[in-house]
Write a structure and sequence with these properties.
heterodimer, A: 882 residues, alpha+beta, 28 helices, B: mainly alpha, two-stranded antiparallel ribbon, 2 strands, WH-like_DNA-bd_sf (chain B), DNA binding (chain B)
Chain lengths: 882, 112
């Protein structure tokens, strides 16, 4: 309605002079009270027209100016709130409101909050633990200050178009490298660490021993408590010992310096330095080091280019170009007599030292794989589990969005923009992620000791490292953003008109996404379950596989000290012991024999084709003691004096040589002729990671080396062992008696597989558990949403079983789909893993069925927990209120 | 209970707003006072008084009714609140009480 001032006269035709003084108008416009400025200016114009008409222009001007001056309120602030006040989302009030709402929502539905927080916390704890493990793995050998310049040599042997990698190098190589390649500043051989006997006075201990050159402590950063890196291994008589060893023999590191220590009861060594005990962060492990020269004094063959024994490490000069050095060393061995008269060419290659620990496998003559595969595997697992936990969060948040939809609608109507809402929900996700992170850190702190004992590590939470907090912050941000992204985008996209009308129907796409997420989640779980089953089966297979010999009740101990000379007496005395069935000896030991020789030729052998045989020197009775089966011919026997030039070979060797009628055939080993007297059935003398290689067993009766093997009677182990120990003590008083059971040693070769199997089990359990948490939440939600429907159905006569089926069916469909989709992926992944074993189990269909059944059962159990409860509710209660 | 004191000018302005009803805004109030009450009240005084009355709760206001002669600016229309009516009534009663308390002689003297 148009209201006109009662007597204002200023029609459209009125000529122009009716204008108030401009300065007064401006005064009014800028200095009057801001709350009333608009209407005041209008009022004043009307008043001016009124005065003009009733009094004339000069008094009107005067009155107008006077009023304008009197209406000045230069210090007034705006009090009345603006009609269109801006909401801006980062105002203190809004932030306070966000927190309040978030907290109320958390507390309102305690079950869902608990599921969310617990699921995320478990996922994070798991990831955190795996990250700690990976960090620890990566830290191995990282402490050497020269790390960038340290390398390891390995050899590539080329023969008849094939190539084979070998990590063991000739003992002379280290010195030769320094001489021939100027860029190589230092180098050292490093043998296989093995226990040796040391004594001081009447203290006798076995210590893990190795040998290295004088450069060793200058190259590697092992901390010396006493002595200097330069003087540590200068002289043949020097020995460098660990703090533990010094304390065991001399009481302290200080007391040990310069003292004498007896090695193997035949050499006096002088302690020239003491190093701090080597931690688990070093791939090289030893209690004491002696010089390489001392080693070659005892092992003359190590001075030959033809034999391979130690690893070789070297250090480059700072300015050296590794690529150039690599090409220079490629043909270094050509000028030696290494390949003389042999059908193959050996090339040298190098690998950075810090990669050695994680990449220790040789594949196609390149250093590739090894522990790094577990690092990768577990990185994936960490991401998977976190993903599963995040999916839980997304699913529950979107499913429950109908609860928040009204809030979203109201917020939108009063002016919230989409970005603000997205920010709000993202912030809530971050809040929950923060709670979970706190819980996760506590969980990790609690579980770390158990995890350590499982993995054989000594990890601690690195509280003081900023890196650690960085990781946690990163984890938190990643989880929060990932988990919050979908709910934030989904909820903020809702249409306020539809929400507030009361009909929130999820369109098919959001349901599809939610179901897709469940499928994905369960797919990951199924992959983990299948993985667990296959790893368990493979480890079990390996441990129970018929090795071709009887590894139960087979004890072995090293021939050392005086036993070299007294073997015959030892054997005579051992056979007297009641529990001892057979006694023999062999080079290497029954659980693992990695020796190799390439000098075997036979009539018709291809001079260009090199076959690596595994040689083993054995005593009489070897086959009986080991319980080996003969395929052809006969065992070594004292009745045949010619057996000193006779050999036993295994079936693989026969196959390789292609001999039709092997027994009695003559073959060549180097320059000497040997005769095959018998053929052994194949047996495993190495871990099942490698295929059975051709074996050649020769009699080594004179001064036997390696280990004594004793077959003892089942059930009499303890008393037999004490008897054996007594005999050894008497014959060999200066060496502590150490023995090993073949089956245990054999099992030890699969330690990492066992650990991985166990971890995979735990992780699979965790994944399933977290997935089920999510499913539980979803089921609860669906049951709640369909309360009315269930009520109506029950009134109309539906049975409890029918309703449970109805509610569970949808979820089961998803789980089934997950199984179908995940099985091929699981198959592919596990096929890859099994490639690492020469002897693998077959992946069979029942494994997938089993995994599927497990997943379905767990899902059914989880869902029915909710659906049964929903189905049992008295319909009167659910239908009463509308 | 806090009693807001209603000044004489305030009472007059409040009454005027009540008289004008829906038409009441600063200009009409000022012109009404000018013409009917015959008092020389400046426009700024009227305006300030209206503001004060609103602050005290006797009046409520509402924006609306922009016209061309006002430069397109809206008017602030005032309306007497319940509290305002009560205050007017009380002021009137107080006055009538005083009037009725007057002796007939004095009353005669005054009406003469």
């Amino acid at each position: 309605m148009e209201r006109k001032p009662t007597s204002a006269r200023s029609g459209a035709g009125t000529p122009g002079p009716a204008r108030p003084p401009r300065w007064a108008t401006r005064l009014l416009a800028s200095w009057s009270h801001p709350d009333t400025r608009e209407e005041l200016q209008g009022d004043m114009l009307e008043m001016y027209a009124y005065w003009l008409e009733s009094l004339g222009k000069p008094p009107a001007d005067r009155k107008y100016a006077l009023a304008a001056i009197r209406l000045m309120r230069p210090f007034a602030r705006q009090k009345r709130s603006n009609d269109y006040s801006e909401t801006y989302s980062f105002s203190a009030a809004m932030i306070q409101n966000y927190f309040k709402i978030a907290l109320r929502n958390l507390l309102k539905s305690k079950t869902f909050s608990a599921i969310n927080v617990l699921g995320l916390a478990l996922g994070m704890a798991c990831s955190l633990m795996i990250m700690l493990w990976i960090r620890d793995e990566r830290a191995v050998d990282a402490f050497h200050t020269n790390n960038g310049q340290l390398y390891r040599i390995y050899m590539r042997e080329y023969f008849s178009g094939k190539v084979q990698g070998v990590i063991w190098t000739p003992g002379l190589l280290a010195e030769e490298l320094k001489k021939s390649i100027p860029e190589i500043e230092m180098s050292t051989p490093y043998s296989w660490t093995n226990p040796q006997t040391f004594s001081v006075g009447n203290k006798i201990h076995k210590q893990a021993t190795n040998w290295a050159s004088a450069d060793f402590f200058k190259m590697f950063s092992y901390k010396l408590l006493q002595g200097t890196p330069e003087g540590a291994l200068r002289d043949k008589s020097n020995i460098v010992i660990s703090r533990n060893m010094a304390e065991a023999f001399f009481g302290s590191a200080e007391a040990a310096m310069g003292k004498a220590i007896r090695y193997d009861n035949r050499k006096e060594m002088t302690v020239s330095a003491v190093f701090e005990n080597i931690g688990t962060n070093s791939s090289l492990q030893f209690d004491c080091l002696m010089t390489w020269d001392a080693y070659t004094d005892d092992n003359g063959w190590a001075r030959d280019w033809g034999s391979t024994d130690p690893l070789t490490f070297f250090k480059l000069r700072k300015d050296a170009d590794p690529a150039k050095v690599a090409t220079k060393m490629l043909h270094l061995l050509d000028k030696t007599n290494r390949d003389a008269g042999k059908p193959y060419k050996t090339q040298l290659a190098m690998q950075p030292f810090h990669e050695y620990y994680l990449n220790s496998n040789i594949k196609d003559a390149k250093m590739d794989g090894g522990r790094i595969e577990y690092v990768r595997l577990f990185s994936f697992v960490a991401v998977f589990i976190l993903l599963i936990a995040c999916i839980n969060f997304m699913n529950l948040a979107t499913a429950r969005s109908s609860r928040r939809a009204k809030e979203v609608g109201v917020r939108k109507v009063v002016g919230a923009m989409r970005s603000m809402l997205a920010g709000q929900f993202m912030g809530e996700a971050l809040l929950i992620a923060t709670l979970s992170a706190i819980l996760a850190v506590l969980l990790v702190a609690l579980l770390l000791p158990a995890f350590n004992s499982l993995t054989g590590k000594q990890m601690v939470l690195p509280w003081s490292e900023p890196m650690f907090w960085g990781i946690i912050a990163g984890l938190l941000a990643a989880t929060g953003l990932l988990a919050g992204s979908y709910p934030a985008l989904f909820l903020s996209s809702l249409n306020p008109v539809r929400i507030l009308k009361g009909a929130l129907k999820f369109d098919s796409s959001s349901v599809w996404v939610r179901q897709g997420l469940v499928v994905f989640q369960f797919g990951l779980s199924v992959i983990l379950i299948v993985g667990m089953i296959i790893i368990y089966r493979q480890v079990g297979f390996v441990q129970n596989k018929n090795l071709g010999f009887d590894r139960e009740n087979l004890v072995y101990f090293p021939i050392e000290g005086e036993l070299f000379k007294k073997y015959d007496i030892l054997k005579a005395q051992l056979t007297q012991v009641a529990g001892v069935k057979e006694v023999s000896h062999m080079t290497a030991n029954p659980a693992s024999n990695g020796n190799g020789t390439e000098g075997i030729t036979w009539p018709g052998s291809d001079p260009n084709d090199k076959v690596r045989f595994t040689p083993v020197g054995v005593g009489y009775n070897f086959t009986k003691t080991m319980n080996l089966q003969m395929a052809d011919g006969r065992d070594f026997s004292k009745d045949f004096p010619t057996d000193s030039s006779g050999v036993l070979v295994n079936e693989t060797a026969v196959k390789v040589m292609g001999l039709k009628d092997p027994v009695g055939r003559e073959i060549n080993w180097g320059r000497s002729k040997i005769r095959i007297v018998g053929v052994l059935k194949d047996f495993h003398f190495q871990s099942l990671h490698t295929a059975i290689r051709p074996l050649i067993a020769y009699l080594a009766v004179r001064e036997p080396q390696g280990s004594v093997i004793v077959r003892i009677q089942a059930g009499k182990t303890p008393e037999t062992l004490t008897a054996i120990e007594r005999i050894c003590k008497k014959l060999n008083p200066n060496v502590p008696f150490t023995y090993a059971f073949t089956d245990q040693e054999y099992a030890r070769q699969y330690q990492s597989e066992q650990v991985v199997g166990k971890l995979a089990g735990y992780f699979a359990f965790l994944a399933i558990f977290i997935s089920c948490l999510g499913l539980f939440g979803l089921a609860a939600f669906t049951a709640e949403q369909r309360t009315k429907e269930i009520g109506v159905r029950k009134v109309l006569g539906a049975s409890v079983a029918g309703i449970v089926g109805l509610l569970s069916k949808d979820f089961l469909k998803l789980v089934m789909m997950a199984i179908v989709l995940a099985s091929p992926v699981a198959w592919y992944i596990m096929k890859q893993w099994l490639q690492g074993f020469a002897y693998q189990i077959d992946i069979e269909w029942w494994m997938f069925v089993l995994a599927g059944v497990i997943a379905v059962l767990i899902a059914v159990f989880t869902v029915s927990f909710q659906s049964v409860r929903a189905a049992m509710v008295n319909p009167v209660r659910s239908l009463r209120s509308e | 209970m806090r009693r807001t004191f209603l000044g004489e000018l305030e009472e007059v302005v409040l009454l005027t707003v009540a008289v004008l009803g829906e038409e009441a805004y600063a200009v009409t109030v000022a012109q009404e006072l000018d013409q009917k009450a015959g008092r020389a009240v400046g426009f700024s005084t009227v305006h300030t008084t209206l503001q004060r009355l609103e602050e005290k709760g006797f009046l409520s206001s509402e924006m609306g009714g922009a016209t061309a002669e006002r430069g397109g600016r809206r008017k602030r229309f005032f309306r007497v609140t319940a509290f305002g009516r009560k205050a007017l009534r009380e002021a009137k009663e107080a006055r009538e009480a005083l009037w009725s308390a007057m002796s007939p002689d004095t009353l005669q003297l005054m009406t003469r």
